[in-house]
Amino acid sequence: MSAAVPSAPAAPAAPAAPAAPAAPAYFMSRSDSGVLTVRSHTDGGPATFTRRLHNDLPRALFEIGEDRDNRVLVLTCTGDRFMADIDGAGLGDLTKPDQWDRTVSEGRRVMQRLLDLETPVVAAVHGPASVHGEYALLADIVAASDTTVFSDFPHPTFGIVPGDGIRIAREEAIGAGRTRHLTLTQGSFTAEQGERWSAVAEVLPLDQVLPRAQAPAEQLAAEPQSLTRYLAVTLRRRICRPKAEGTRLGMAPEGLIAAGPAYRGGEAA
């Protein structure tokens, strides 16, 4: 009687590939079709602009761009606002060169990596975007709630020049003349105005914004990836050069003012 041949042990199941890099300030999920939804938050609620959020985003964008399974990016927020609060004290003492250098480096990388993504980007804006609203305005498609207002809270509040990219994003989205006017008067514009000015594709009730943003994202994810990747690169080509040059020059006067007597960061925080 021959001895039974033992069967080979079953190979362990391969671990599932992560949908996106770990970034504590962002919740991420990816659909089977490759639509990656990135949602900013603070402790699970509406996002406050913090050092952690500023630090996480450029790293996350780099890894998102390196993963070809991410076919379309949907950038959104938590709750009823895109981003309207800022932890000024937590950003560090921006009057110190080393702190400002860190802020400059992170800020430039966020803008550049958003524009460098070889995937279409759709923004779903839920309410006020008074802190870094340019993240949404740089998207290829912008869907916004009827409660959305785009403004710039930090720069006039802290008494510094808006040199970190918001001016360039606004010029691309709503035009140079309107951007100069809003910057000098500390003005804002609503989602409805943004739609008339071609900065916003659609204005919807709050609860319809994310589902509506995900619809074109899924449609794009179904297209050949080579087509959508090169479409994204082509559509953003015009803004890439002025963005690169503008932030290098713009962050210098912003830092200069932050180091001078006009800076009100400590008071605002």
TrEMBL record:
Coiled coil: none annotated. It comes from the Bacteria. Signal peptide: none annotated. GO terms for molecular function: catalytic activity. Gene3D superfamilies: 2-enoyl-CoA Hydratase, Chain A, domain 1. PANTHER family: EG:BACN32G11.4 PROTEIN, ENOYL-COA HYDRATASE. This is Crotonase.
